[in-house]
User: Fold this.
Amino acid sequence: MTDAVALHRADPSLPDPPAGAAGAVPRPAAARHGERILIVSDAWQPSVNGVVRTLEALTVELRALGHAVQVIGPERFFSLPLPSYPEVRLALPPPARLRAMIDGFAPTAIHIATEGPLGLAARRHCLARKLRFTTAFHTRFPEYLACRLPVPLTWSYAALRRFHAPADAVMVATPRLERTLRGRGFTRLRHWTRGVDTELFRPRDKSHLDGPRPISLYVGRVAVEKNLEAFLALDLPGCKYVVGDGPQLRWLQRRHPAVRFLGYKQGEELARCYAAADVFVFPSRTDTFGLVLLEALACGVPVAAYAVPGPLDVIGRSMVGCLDDDLGRAVQAALAVPAAACRAYAMGFTWRNSARQFAAIAAAA
Assistant:
């Protein structure tokens, strides 16, 4: 991008406002009241990541809409730590026990949220019993794997395409991701937007974080696929903060001793960290959405990110941040964005609308 002071990257293919903003997404046909919705996910409490936080907010809103919801997660079974990600547990569900759990709940809708061992086991059960189900594409696993091992993207996407092929619907967070997956042969794709808790994430006093201003903040997993080095290596005024944990944490702490690493935060403490920053920096090039973008905006903090899928879908043509191929230039431009504009934009994203979309797609399967 050549204009360093532009507050967004114009893209003629992107709707204005972006999908997920108030009024941008047509409300789906409502699901029947009182659905029994079963969600099977390899990502669930006590782990903390974007998938878990999405499902937590989803279950709360689905229940508020009058649906019965049960989540089958890895905490119910014997599990092993994922290599390089010990905080993520891989469940080894006994088939008979999983079948009993599914049948015992008597769901009217089954949603398989992840492509891990639990998701595979639930998929096998549904196919064997000829039960209809939906899935979701939350994570760009092929790109994440390619960051660590020389595995061609075509191989990984072929495996994921086979996993999702029998589903009645494959839910995706953004139109841009939908186009990408269609180009890779995925079918039955349906748009399921995301939301933000605007009561928790709100503007607050900025004294919670100290140090020279402006404060540039990153929140999220500290791992190679998040491209954190691109942010931490920038020569920026003020100081940098990182909130989160992950396999790259110790290495980055040694490499960037001037950066303030706060570790994992949640709830009020996390919200205060967001609100105390002057700019939120999102260096990832592989996220499918980026809930942290909405959380920062809800706290009145502008976003600086690369002009890539995820930020393009969330930020779009709005004037609440800067998307630029030069991340340092994006940070400098985003600092000029008014906090009130960020907050107003985030108010258009609600978990209630997200839950209504989800329920309508799941119930139609």
User: Anything to note?
Assistant: Residues 1-28 have pLDDT under 50 and may be disordered. The chain has two domains: 36-195+350-364, 206-346. Residues 275 and 299 are 5 Å apart (CA to CA). The first strand starts at residue 36 and ends at 40.
